Amino acid sequence: MKNNEEVKQYSLSTMLNSIDTPNNSKKYIVSRSAIKEYDNTKEFVTLSTKLYIQSNDITFKENISLSSSRDSISYFGNFENNLEKRISKCKKRIINLLTNEDVIVGYSSRSQDYMARLILNNEENLVKEAISQLFIENVDNFDFTYKLIEVMSNLEYKKLYPNNTFIAFSSVNHKDVRIQEAAIASIEKWEDSRNLKYLKNIDYTTEWIEEYANNVINYLESCE
After folding, report:
1. 175-213 CB burial, b ≥16 within 10 A, e <16
2. For the chain, where are the E strands, in sequence order?
3. CA 29 to CA 162: how far, in whole Å?
4. Which parts of 40-123 fold into alpha helices (H)?
5. Which of 72, 98, 129, 145 has a 20 to 30 A CA-CA distance from 108?
6. How far apart are CA 209 and CA 178, in angstroms?
7. Per-residue pLDDT of the chain (224 residues; tens, 9 = 90+)
């Protein structure tokens, strides 16, 4: 791999759910220490890989190469392509659901149920990546962004952290006041005192949103 080529990293759980085998005779076993190939000859071959530990999450470099005396398989790119397809499919499903439903505060929605099922099936990294991309791509679509934040705020907080907090704080001074309010309401709902330092260091552009934020600050301080 070229030195200047970008290396993407993915979480272990995402990789386990995304990896495809070159053919039916081979299975890949992923562990914290190594990735190995097991074929019909019951021969184990160690794959070349690297481990990364970031924010208490184990990730693997996407460049995985396999070589043995019998064959040589280049696996570079296969994982990325499959993961990108899954992210794209997830995004399309969320877009379809959010576009065609009303999201009402205090009530569940089909889009919320869909993402909650993914998280329940240990696909939180897929959801994190999908909502992050959707937020960036649709920040100028006020109705969609509002719905996305509202639904995101009702999903399991710790599973989507820190992507959910980045989205919320990026929205505090959005042009649309509904989005500003939804962002502060999300932070209030999550009841995480770690978010106090962010709330206290924002130059709010809407007076009543600043008052709302100050109330949330007082509330979070009382929870400590």
Report:
1. ebeebbbbbbbbbbebeeeebbeebeeeebeeeebbebb
2. 9-11, 27-30, 35-38, 44-46, 51-54, 57-61, 65-67, 72-74
3. 29
4. 78-99, 110-120
5. 129
6. 10
7. 444 434 344 444 444 444 444 443 333 433 333 333 333 333 333 333 333 223 233 333 333 333 333 333 344 455 566 889 999 999 999 999 999 999 999 899 999 999 999 999 999 999 999 999 999 999 999 999 999 999 999 999 999 999 999 999 999 999 999 999 999 999 999 999 999 999 999 999 999 999 999 999 999 999 87
pTM assigned to the model: 0.67
Contacts of 192 (CB under 8 A, 6+ apart): 157, 165, 220
